[in-house]
Design goal:
Helix content: 40-55%
Structural class: alpha+beta
Radius of gyration: 43 Å
Largest sheet: 5 strands, antiparallel
CATH topology of the largest domain: Beta-Lactamase
CATH class of the largest domain: Alpha Beta
CATH superfamily of the largest domain: PAS domain
CATH architecture of the largest domain: 2-Layer Sandwich
Distance between the termini: 112 Å
Number of helices: 13
C-alpha cells in the first residue's frame, strides 16, 4: 500500500525541475519588484520636490512683488513721498504677506522708516555704509540696479532673516534710496517643515553661485547633498538655491511576500500531485459542507417571523419560508408557481409598489390579502439578488397589525390622559386666577408671588395639554377648521399689540403696505391667531433684552406672506430639517435655557397646511431666525 505513493526517478526529476524553475522566476520577479519600488520612491521625490520648489518660490516672491509695488509708487511720485504716507503704506503691505517680518525704507541709504517698529527699534536710523560686513553686497545691488534676495543674515535687532533689497532710482541716474523687506526665516522654515512632514521627505537647501559652485547649507542635513538624493535648483529674484530631496516614506518591500507566495504555490503543486486522492476527498467534504450550509440558511429563514419570498423577475414565486404560509393562510408548498401579487389586496397598485421600492432600503405600506380574502396592513421591502448566475427578486413582507394596534392604543392613551387632565387643570387655573386677582381677599407679597408662580405653571401645563390634544386630533384627522374670509392685517396687528403689552422691554414692529390693509384670506380665525401668537412667542423667547422683532406682511404672487424675524441666536444648520417635527428641540437637555415641548411648530405647520398654505424657515440676514407662513388670498376682494 505504501509503495503506491513512492515517486519514480523521472517524477522526482520533474518536481526538482519545477522547483528550480519556480525559484528562478521568483528571484527575477523579486528583482523587478525592488526596481519598481525604487522607481515609485523616485517618482514620489520628483513630485514632492516640484511642489516644495513651487511653494518656496511662491511664498518668497510675494514679498518681492509687494516691494516692487512700493518702489513703483515712490518712482511715480518722483521720490516726493512723505513720512506720513510711508507710515500708512507699510502696514498695508506687511498685512498682505504672512512671512514679512518688517519693511524698511532708507532714503539716502539711511533706514528712516520701518514697520512694525516694535522689536526693530535698533535698526531705525541705521546708515548702510556703516555696516561694513553688509555694505559691499548692498553697494553691488545699487550698482546693478536690481532687487536681490540675500541671506540668511544676522539682523542688527537680533535674529536671522532673508532680506529683499531693492534700489530705487528716480529717472535714469538719480538714486533715491533703498527699500528692504525682511522675510521671517522661522515662518518660512515652519511652513516648509510642515509640507515635508506631510509628504514624508527630507530636504536640505544651500546657496549656489552664478557659476554653479555650491555654497553653505542653511537648511536641513548637509549629508543629503552627498548621497543619491534628488537635486534641483530654485530660482528667486537675485538668488539661486539648490535643494536636495530624499523620500523617507517606507518602501514597501514585497520580496518576502513574493517568495512566500511562489514557494508556497510550488509546494502546494507538489502536494497536489502527490496526494490526488486527498484532494478528491476534500472536494467531497466541500460538497457536504455546502449542503449543510444550505440547510442552515434554510433553517434560519424558516424561523424568521417575516415572510421571505424569492421570485423570478416577472414575479412568479419560486421559494418561500415557513412563516409565509400561516401569515397568508395557505397550505404548505402551495405558494410556489403563483404570482406574488395574489398576496396583495390591491394588485392593480403593483407598478406603484415597484416604483416606491426601487431602493432596497425603502419600506412600502399596503394591504395584504389572506386566502380567505381578509385583509391586514403589511409592509413590503424589495431588492434584487443573484442566485446561480440568475437575477431574482427578494421580497420581505411584514404584518403590521400589531404595530398599528400599538399606535392606536398610544393615541387613545394620549387623548384620554389629555382630556382627563384638562378638566382639573381648568378648575385649578380658575381658582388660582381668582386668588391672584384678589377676589378671595388680601394677600401678602410672598403669598401673591407664590400663587402667581403656581398660576403661571398651571397655564403652561394647560397649554401642554392643549398641544397634546391638537397633536392627537391632527394625527387622527378629527381636527375641524372653520374656514371663512378674514382680514389678515388687523389680526396680525392685534397679535403684535397683545405681545407688546406682555413684553414691554422688547420692540415689536409691524411692517406692511397700505394696499394690503383690506387683504383677506380664507382661514380659521382662532387657529390662525394661535399660529401667529406662537411665532411671536418663539421670537420673544429667544430674543435678547431690548431686541427688535420685525413682523412683515407682503404679497408673493398668489399668496400673502407673514414673516416674523428675531435677533436671537438662530437655528443650527444641522437642526433645520427637524424644526417642524413633533417633540423636536435644538436643546433637549435637562439644563436647557428655554422651556417648551417641541410641539408648537409642528402643530402650526399642520394648521397652515389645512388652510391650504405653507410654513417655512430661513436664516435672518444678519443674525437670528426668520419664520414665515403663506396663505392664498381671496382674489375677488383684492383691488
Amino acid at each position: 500500500m505504501r509503495n503506491k505513493f513512492i515517486l519514480s526517478f523521472w517524477q522526482w526529476l520533474l518536481l526538482l525541475a519545477l522547483f528550480l524553475s519556480a525559484m528562478y522566476a521568483t528571484e527575477t520577479l523579486v528583482k523587478h519588484e525592488q526596481q519598481y519600488a525604487r522607481g515609485q520612491q523616485y517618482k514620489h521625490e520628483i513630485t514632492s520636490a516640484g511642489q516644495l520648489r513651487a511653494l518656496l518660490e511662491s511664498e518668497l516672491n510675494i514679498p518681492l512683488y509687494l516691494t516692487l509695488g512700493l518702489t513703483a509708487h515712490v518712482q511715480a511720485v518722483g521720490g516726493n513721498i512723505s513720512g506720513t504716507e510711508i507710515q500708512m503704506l507699510l502696514p498695508e503691505l506687511v498685512q498682505q504677506a504672512r512671512h514679512i517680518r518688517n519693511i524698511g525704507v532708507a532714503p539716502g541709504n539711511t533706514l528712516s522708516y520701518i514697520y512694525p517698529l516694535k522689536g526693530n527699534e535698533k535698526a531705525v536710523g541705521l546708515h548702510y555704509p556703516d555696516i561694513t560686513e553688509q555694505w559691499p553686497a548692498i553697494a553691488a545691488i545699487i550698482a546693478q540696479r536690481e532687487a536681490r534676495l540675500v541671506g540668511p543674515i544676522d539682523l542688527i535687532q537680533g535674529g536671522q532673516a532673508f532680506i529683499y533689497r531693492l534700489p530705487v532710482f528716480i529717472g535714469i541716474d538719480n538714486y533715491w534710496g533703498i527699500i528692504s523687506t525682511v522675510v521671517d526665516i522661522d515662518s518660512v522654515w515652519s511652513l516648509l517643515e510642515k509640507q515635508t512632514t506631510e509628504q514624508q521627505v527630507q530636504v536640505a537647501i544651500r546657496n549656489l553661485s552664478e557659476l554653479g559652485d555650491s555654497g553653505k547649507v542653511f537648511y536641513g542635513d548637509s549629508s543629503l547633498f552627498y548621497d543619491d538624493s534628488l537635486l534641483l535648483r530654485i530660482s528667486l529674484r537675485g538668488a539661486l538655491w539648490q535643494m536636495a530631496v530624499r523620500s523617507i516614506a517606507p518602501v514597501r518591500d514585497k520580496s518576502w511576500q513574493i517568495r512566500t507566495t511562489a514557494y508556497s504555490l510550488t509546494l502546494l503543486l507538489v502536494v497536489l500531485l502527490a496526494w490526488l486522492l486527498i484532494s478528491r476527498q476534500r472536494l467531497r467534504n466541500s460538497v457536504t459542507a455546502e449542503k449543510q450550509s444550505r440547510l442552515y440558511l434554510r433553517s434560519i429563514m424558516d424561523n424568521v417571523t417575516d415572510a421571505i419570498i424569492t421570485t423570478s423577475l416577472d414575479g412568479t414565486i419560486e421559494q418561500v419560508n415557513l412563516s409565509c404560509y400561516p401569515m397568508f393562510g395557505y397550505a404548505a408548498t402551495t405558494l410556489p408557481g403563483l404570482h406574488w401579487s395574489e398576496l396583495l389586496a390591491q394588485p392593480q397598485l403593483l407598478d406603484e409598489l415597484y416604483s416606491a421600492t426601487s431602493n432596497a432600503k425603502t419600506e412600502f405600506e399596503t394591504q395584504g390579502k389572506r386566502r380567505d380574502n381578509t385583509q391586514f396592513p403589511m409592509a413590503v421591502n424589495r431588492s434584487q439578488i443573484r442566485l446561480q448566475q440568475q437575477s431574482k427578486q427578494l421580497l420581505v413582507l411584514r404584518d403590521l397589525t400589531e404595530r398599528h394596534q400599538t399606535e392606536q392604543l398610544k393615541q387613545q392613551f394620549i387623548s384620554t390622559v389629555s382630556h382627563e387632565l384638562r378638566t382639573p387643570l381648568t378648575s385649578i387655573s380658575g381658582a388660582l386666577g381668582l386668588a391672584v386677582s384678589g377676589a378671595l381677599g388680601e394677600l401678602t407679597a410672598s403669598q401673591k408671588r407664590m400663587l402667581q408662580l403656581a398660576y403661571s405653571s398651571s397655564q403652561q401645563l394647560t397649554t401642554l395639554v392643549n398641544d397634546l390634544l391638537n397633536v392627537e386630533r391632527i394625527s387622527s384627522g378629527t381636527l375641524a377648521l372653520q374656514l371663512q374670509p378674514i382680514a389678515l392685517l388687523p389680526l396680525v396687528q392685534q397679535c403684535v399689540d397683545e405681545m407688546q403689552l406682555l413684553h414691554p422691554a422688547l420692540t415689536l414692529q409691524l411692517q406692511n403696505l397700505p394696499a394690503l390693509e383690506q387683504l383677506q384670506v380664507n382661514a380659521d380665525i382662532s387657529h390662525l391667531q394661535h399660529v401667529i401668537q406662537h411665532l411671536l412667542s418663539n421670537a420673544v423667547k429667544f430674543s435678547p433684552t431690548a431686541a427688535n422683532i420685525q413682523v412683515s406682511v407682503t404679497r408673493q404672487a398668489d399668496f400673502v406672506r407673514v414673516t416674523v424675524q428675531d435677533q436671537g441666536i438662530g437655528v443650527a444648520p444641522e437642526f433645520v430639517p427637524k424644526l417642524f417635527s413633533r417633540f423636536s428641540q435644538a436643546d433637549s437637555s435637562d439644563s436647557r435655557k428655554h422651556g417648551g415641548t417641541g410641539l408648537g411648530l409642528s402643530i402650526s405647520q399642520n394648521l397652515i397646511n389645512q388652510m391650504r398654505g405653507s410654513m417655512g424657515y430661513q436664516p435672518a440676514p444678519e443674525s437670528g431666525s426668520c419664520f414665515y407662513f403663506e396663505l392664498p388670498y381671496i382674489q375677488a376682494d383684492q383691488a
